[in-house]
Fold:
Amino acid sequence: MVLKTFGWSFAVTALGLVAAFFYGGWHAFGIVAILSILEISLSFDNAVINAGILKKMNAFWQRIFLTIGILIAVFGMRLVFPVVIVAVSAQLGPIEAIDLSFNDPDRYKELVTDAHPAIAAFGGMFLLMIFLDFIFEDRDIQWLRWIERPLAKIGKVDMLSVCVALVVLLVSAMTFATHAHQHGGGHVDKTSTVLLSGIAGLITYLIVGGLSGFFEGKLEEEEEREQEAEELAKKAGKPVTGVALAGKAAFFLFLYLEVLDASFSFDGVIGAFAITNEIVLMALGLGIGAMYVRSLTVYLVRQGTLDDYVYLEHGAHYAIGALAVILLVTIQYEINEIITGLIGVVLIGLSFWSSLRRNKAIAALGGSSGDAGGSAGSKAEVHSGV
Structure:
């Protein structure tokens, strides 16, 4: 079962790592491996969400998402999008950006280094908004309760995450952007660039979130209509088919999933810039990670066994928050990519370990690991939370 589900991912991993080694030796090999782990870590909750929604779709629409959807995710967001970011930030044409990355890497790195404050501010704000919206939300299951409980209370204030993000942007611009690195080792004032790029990242997040909310609303409307149609059919003694409404609902599900996948892919691509600026290594690492996200989604749909690890989503969002801070700090200071990559892995590992502890505590009390709302689950939360 595992080999059947993850077979293509294993094959792509082997090919990608071999290609990385021949491209840049063991250093490139390590960067691609870290990027792959980073992408899997950041997108794990995406796979869980995808699996939960895919279960509601028929086999045809599941195949559409897992074939056409993965082509969009891998080739669109993880291969083309990094090139677009570099091209826009460095004011190059896409073809010129690709040509420079292969034929004149020194010039390419010079342009990317000079454009890094803009990239870091844009990506840092986008990732920070994902983290803030998560941490300010009041949820039944909390991992780091001593942090999440008080933040959830103040998170009831409207637009708090946007206000906090703008304050962080202003502080970052005044602290780091005034002495940002430029090619050649000197410093230059990039305050206006950082402010504009950060605001652009914030706007992008709000647009993506708005589209996701729109599709989610459409989906809920279709589900309500389908339920009403089924109830009327039952009362009239007619067979319940729901084909037309299911088709509409499935179409909106597909659109909603594509927007969600794009947003999660975006944070992976942006996070990759905190590790490397080389498009080839970025494409290899993120492409490998995307294949595992697809395989994991299929596995979750078929097995549904990982939903019990309830803190993994928390760990992924804390990793996103850490990457946001790192990106903003790198406007002025350089941070080793190994440290950047390992932070996410450690946070995911800790959240997985906490989930295991929680499940064992619930089992010891005779409860169900999937029932966090019961008395046993509540007691286990007290003993297994961090």
Notes: The chain has twelve helices and two strands. The mean pLDDT is 76.
